[in-house]
Amino acid sequence: MKNIEISKTYQSPRWTGEIADCSLPMTLDTYSNCSFGCVYCFSQYQRGIGRSADNYLSKSVKCIDVEKVKKIFNLEDTKSQFYQYVKDKRPIQYGGLSDQFDGYERKYGQTYELLKYLKSINYPICFSTKSAWVFSDPKYQELFKGADNWNVKFSIITLDEEDAKKIEVGVPSPQKRLEAMANYTKLSKGGATLRLRPFIPGVSDKTYLDLIRAAKEAGATAVTTEFFCLELRSLNTAREHYKTISEVAGFDIVDFYRKHSNGSGYLRLNRKVKEKYIKNMKKLCDELGMRFYVSDAHFKECSHNCCCCALNKNWDYSRGNFAAALQIAKKVGEVHWSDIEKDMYFLNFPYEKAIGFNVNTSENKAKYEGMTMKDYLRYLWNNPKMGQSPYKIFERVLVPNGYDENKDIIYKYNKDVTFVEMEEKTKEEVLETRV
Model's pTM, two decimal places? Predict the structure, then answer.
């Protein structure tokens, strides 16, 4: 690997913005940018606006300081917010805002340098990638060989080669990614997942069931999906991108989302539009013997367990989140704060100083000043009108049903708004086998 100079000032890892319902809250990226040009990419609306817009849109790139990141994982940095999480070897999400195996990696090789160390300490990782070359490169193959606590999600949204070229610019073809999946499964028992995200109506629905079958043949054991969300607040930035999606879909994607979404700004399709696709995917996965997961807040109750990144229940992912609460309620009818609180022990750092977590406004900072991240999640739990509360985030699948002895809300599973039936297990069975 050539030693090519690059600024090593990119700050990562970070806490995910979805920390309220995420089982892999610690996320890591190698690079500040991505060499791929997917027109649906949500990162462009986080990084491609404001003061950093010019650098992001011009593909200027920085990387992590590998030696600095190592200090977090070798526990040398005892003041790190990630110390307790890493000390207990909870799995991390590698690839949150960028692809760690893209063209920048071929040029700079910094992911490889960090992975050599992470493999040496046997650290569990869940990757997300659209890359293919890395799984046929002998150097990287040697890294993945026998790394059975490394799981890879292969992101593919359509089997149609021509549509993929237009939507996922610069990304290997769907077939190449399926071949990479097959190559990977020969190297590791960590598991391969089809990451059918984002599911775009008019694009993904042309081939999605055949794509799941193809992934099964390539060795995938699970499927995870999430519907595309449309960002109206960055419409000027995204105008050409949405035009491309509309041409491939055969209809105006912006008009479609405006018609079938609630709210404004950040548009999420309503449950009714999504339901038929979710049902079809779940039914096929059940037939094929694949685990099925929904990252989307709508129909997250369909997931095989609370980790929507598709890790099976034997992994030590976090159960201290609202997705875990949803799974408990689905099985026993209701859920208490105390059922998930015990696995929030690593969140005892100041909310307003959470690394990489967007607190949005100075007003928010002041409002939650003095709270730990765990306190903040408890506040969300007990304020159902908040957008990230269990009631709001899952759109009434969990509804308040009184208070416990600590004056924390008890949430009940609401069968009236979902097709997913309860599983009839005792709370002891659920908590013993973990969700």
Answer: 0.94
